[in-house]
Amino acid sequence: MIDCSSETVVVTGASSGFGEAIARRYAKHGAKLILAARRMDRLEKLKGELGVPSHLVELDVRNRDAVEKAFGRLPADFANVTILVNNAGLALGLEPAHKVNLDDWQTMIDTNVTGLVTVTRTLLPGMVERDKGHIVNIGSVAGNYPYPGGNVYGGTKAFVKQFSLALRSDLLGANVRVTNIEPGMADTEFSLTRFKGNKAEADKVYQGVEALTADDIAETVFWSTALPAHVNINRIEVMPTQQAFAGFKVERRS
Ligand code: NDP
Ligand code: 8X3
Fold first, then answer.
1. Closest Cα partner for 157 from 121, 189, 111?
2. Which of 34, 74, 185, 223 has the highest count of CB atoms within 10 angstroms of its CB?
3. Does ligand 1 come within 6 angstroms of the Cβ of 45?
4. pLDDT digits (tens, 9 = 90+) for 112-157
5. Separation CA 61–CA 142 (nearest Å)
6. Each residue of 82-95: b (16+ CB within 10 Å) or e?
7. Which residues, other chains included, contact 227 with Cβ-Cβ below 8 Å and sequence gap of 6+?
8. Does residue 196 contact residue 92 with C-beta atoms inside 8 Å?
9. Which of 11, 12, 18 has most ligand 1 atoms within 8 Å of its beta carbon, as the pocket-test mutant?
10. What CATH homologous superfamily does 8-183+212-238 map to?
């Protein structure tokens, strides 16, 4: 059994899906946890089930002041963060670019891009100072391959991939690892959020498919951080066996 009792792990978006499963995975190995999300009731319930020291943060990652307050002044027992999992994120809508709600685009950029870089910038100096750390970003296959309606969501995840690689460049010599995990279709609350609470639409996404589970992604995240400190996994793209790529589409007018 890998011992994580010397790790302090921050998980953003720990109130459901990947984040919750990641918290449970590290808890099993004795890590201290800092769990952030907007839905505190979910975090409180999770904390009660984990059995490891857990510090909860009610946080909207889009709010820079709140991020800096929460992570800039952590309780002494939780101050030496060793692993940051930047997981909080969302897709909203699947309409073509000319029909989308501009507010949805803004929310995705504010959360998936601005929120992620703000949390990173707040916690990174401590890792560099202590000469120890690992940032795991949750990207997506949507950042690697376009699909209809993926527009800004895919754009934000392409940013996350490039930002992760750029961090590697900046952090050479700092003993801080950076990994971008790029999942395909996974059965979480992701689609319920994308379709704004329409459960029938969300369920259709996973119908007849053995999608990835949150535990699959938690396992991938955990594996990447459990490798020896001299090993940096840059990127992992992971998809369900029942999901693959479509060919190019051609519009034929005659
Ligand atoms: P869920 O909807 O189950 O979880 C999303 C989490 O993000 C929730 O805990 C939510 O917490 C949190 N979150 C959303 N907005 C904010 C915010 N403004 N501030 C703080 N927390 C926020 O979906 P997943 O677990 O699937 O998604 C997790 C990550 O994985 C996302 O970045 C998503 O883009 C990515 N991903 C998902 C895939 C999938 O198919 N499921 C595939 C590839 C990537 P709360 O609402 O309580 O704040
Ligand atoms: C979520 C996976 O394919 O729905 O990032 O964009 S996908």
1. 111
2. 34
3. no
4. 999 999 999 999 999 999 999 999 999 999 999 999 999 999 999 9
5. 21
6. bbbbbbbbbbbbbe
7. 233
8. yes
9. 18
10. NAD(P)-binding Rossmann-like Domain (3.40.50.720)
